[in-house]
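A.,

Following up on our hallway conversation. Structure tokens first:
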């Protein structure tokens, strides 16, 4: 695991602007979770989490989450044999990026959770409607009407987002023919795999914020002393350290239940937001300048906290699963 972490970290430091194909070919990470018979590494969530954490630490724009996690898991868990034979080798090679659209509500969500479809509907083998705020990817897979389908959008519109390193698109489908690639029996499990990978990204970003804040506290001097020698800064950084270490425990937990994914999603989202905010506070005036990276981590933390569920939505989900409803 340490070798994988160090290799990915070193590459991202040397080639931060590498394309997805270059990144995937150099490190083989696109196929980490792809079974070996399809040209992948046959690895599990621990390896995926290590790579995701390093991407989060570097604020990398690589489409790892949507391609190597969401699309791959959808095909592995729900794809037909023909679809896996056709698509997984290309995804494992990094020859194409991909994205996954969840149309409709998940079966384990409460009725007050918003739907995700944007009006998508499948009629007579043709897909119509729009999918909003979709992670950018070339190959488009859609969970809709109990099926996993491949569809080519009629139009794509890129959003101007808070976090430029996480491109989002609006996909339009005007009665486009679809290619059925599987069912939707494991749609919630695929979503949970995405939540866990995102939690690892958030942990990586939070850990980097802590490193930057500690480094600045050691270098910056006031009244003849490093600012890290003052109790106010010490306590602030100690609190962030506790949050970051706890986020790592949640993100790298060797479990796969929906409840555990929600715990990781809720805690890592909040930890990243707090760490990014405190990083700005420790840096003081320089932390709010456009030239410093602190604001970029805060923007990524803010956008990540709404990518699947908000921390509040994760906690509502946990409450619904843990506490029995009471009669009035």
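Then the amino acids I'd put at each of the 328 positions:
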């Amino acid at each position: 695991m340490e070798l994988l972490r160090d290799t990915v970290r070193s590459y991202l430091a040397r080639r931060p602007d590498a394309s997805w194909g270059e990144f995937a070919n150099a490190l083989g990470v696109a196929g980490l979770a792809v079974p070996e018979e399809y040209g992948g590494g046959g690895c599990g969530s621990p390896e995926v989490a290590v790579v995701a954490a390093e991407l989060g630490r570097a604020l990398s724009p690589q489409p790892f989450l949507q391609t190597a996690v969401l699309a791959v898991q959808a095909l592995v868990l729900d794809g037909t044999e023909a679809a896996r034979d056709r698509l997984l080798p290309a995804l494992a090679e990094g020859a194409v990026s991909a994205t996954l659209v969840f149309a409709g509500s998940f079966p384990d969500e409460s009725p007050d959770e918003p739907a995700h479809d944007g009006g998508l509907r499948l009629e007579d083998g043709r897909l119509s409607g729009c999918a909003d705020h979709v992670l950018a990817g070339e190959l488009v897979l859609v969970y809709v009407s109990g099926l996993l389908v491949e569809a080519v959008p009629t139009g794509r519109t890129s959003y101007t987002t808070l976090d430029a390193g996480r491109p989002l698109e609006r996909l339009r489908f005007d009665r486009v023919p679809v290619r059925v690639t599987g069912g939707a029996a494991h749609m919630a499990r695929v979503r949970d795999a995405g939540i866990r990978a995102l939690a690892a990204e958030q942990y990586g970003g939070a850990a980097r914020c802590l490193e930057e804040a500690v480094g600045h506290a050691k270098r910056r001097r006031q009244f003849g002393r490093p600012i890290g020698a003052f109790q106010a800064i010490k306590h602030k950084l100690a609190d962030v350290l506790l949050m970051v270490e706890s986020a790592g425990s949640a993100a790298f937990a060797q479990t796969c239940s929906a409840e555990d994914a929600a715990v990781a999603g809720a805690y890592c989202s909040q930890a990243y937001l707090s760490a990014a905010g405190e990083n700005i506070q420790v840096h003081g005036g320089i932390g709010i300048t456009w030239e410093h990276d602190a604001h970029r981590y805060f923007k990524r933390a803010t956008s990540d906290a709404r990518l699947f569920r908000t921390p509040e939505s994760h906690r509502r989900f946990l409450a619904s699963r843990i506490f029995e409803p009471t009669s009035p």
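The radius of gyration is 21 Å. Curious whether your intuition agrees with the design.

B.
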